[in-house]
Amino acid sequence: MTKLTFGWEEWIALPELGLPALKVKVDTGARTSALHAHDIEVFGPPSKPKVRFNIHPIPGREDITITCSAPIIDRREVTSSNGESEQRFVISTMLEVGGQSWPIDVTLTNRAGMASRMLLGRQALNEHINITATSRRLQPDLSYDVYHSPTVRRTAPQRALRIAVMSREPGTYSTRRLVEVGEARGHTVEVIDTTRCYMAINALAPEVHYDGKRLPRYDAVIPRIGASITPYGTAVVRQFETIGTYSVNGSAGITASRDKLHAHQVLASKKIGMPTTAFAASPKDTSNLMALVGTAPLIVKLLESTQGKGVVLAETKKAAESVIDAFRGLKANFLVQDFVKEAAGEDIRCLVIAGKVVASMKRKGADGDFRSNLHRGGTAEVVRISKLERDTAVRAARSFGLGMAGVDLLRSDSGPKVLEVNSSPGFEGIEKATGKDIVGKLYDEIEARVKPQPGRKRKTTSDG
């Protein structure tokens, strides 16, 4: 490696931290380099702790923030030039300058008043650098303009993330897979019971608390909210959204998709095919409600039904009247739907992530059961879907603004009909039927979404 000559100030890059241009001060009086970071936070298991921090790479531009993370390799007491000592976390990262690169140790400290974002100490310079202390910027100039470019987001390195899975059932296949796959990628994944969260709601510092402590800053949350706690669960998601945390599925989309009446109104407004549906709070004549849908057989469905519970097939008009009267007697909210006979007890589950169908399976009900839910003994197999079915599933998920959704379709003579859009789809059935790593595809989207966002374009000089 050819030795480079540095002046007292140079441009460098720390690509592993997502920092393509930093102006640094060379300080031969310091042993270890120091990066001026803020919001420094430790996370991950005690055996392999990581640190997450933010940095404003451009002096005076606090509107541009890059979030970085790295494994902690040490913690040292460092004495500054004014004689003050502090304990600092130490990380290791690659330094790039003049077409060459090598690993350096870096301490993290919050010095908001410092003009230079970083000091380069002797360890970073050893064997690689000659110093000309009376000169500056002897290596190629870089530019802060890179932080305004979309390329920064596309090429930012994958960093360790802190992710919360909102679930009351940590032992289920879906929750376990979310933890296992995330941790295999180097992330820290924590399962939090939604009902044990509580919120501090105020304008200046909204927070989410859990078991007596304020929850840390998460890079992303993955809601797995059961039907029984939808109102409170979506309120917690909304609080995370207020803080600025990325949620795979937003609170509004979860709320709308979970309410079957609301969901069908959304689908209808987007002109997405679905079985003919009718709803009324208290019709004077049951026959009027049935006539809006058509002739028997009919499906009578509780608005709060999940996994096939509260869904009844009425094969005759008299049976439909009896079921409707029974539901009304229980003061239950329900809707009536046309029964798509040609579907023959089969439906198609399309798993949509980030606007793409990543997997699909055909589900068939158990013998004698028109419901195809796997929880009720149904079976599943991989299926090839048509372009129209694919487009319908994508449009249905998009209509609720869901980043991840299970869209259930019926194949009818008049084209695909959307039965339901599920904001907390299970992964077990579709992963086993298709052999695909669905959870991995979800993490691909999360990792892409939490990369640094390009800042607003602003004219800068070569001096930054």
Automatic annotation (TrEMBL):
GO CC terms, sorted: cytoplasm
InterPro entries on file: Asp_endopeptidase, ATP-grasp, ATP-grasp_RimK-type, ATP_grasp_subdomain_1, Peptidase_aspartic_dom_sf, Rimk_N, Rp_bS6_RimK/Lys_biosynth_LsyX
Residue span(s) of domain ATP-grasp: 264-447
Key words of the record: ATP-binding, Ligase, Magnesium, Manganese, Metal-binding, Nucleotide-binding, Protein biosynthesis
Spans traversing the lipid bilayer: none
GO biological process, one term: SOS response
Family: In the C-terminal section; belongs to the RimK family.
Entry-linked PROSITE patterns: ATP_GRASP
Positions in coiled-coil regions: none
Example of a GO MF term: ATP binding
Cofactor(s) essential for the protein: Mn(2+); Mg(2+)
Name the record gives this protein: Probable alpha-L-glutamate ligase
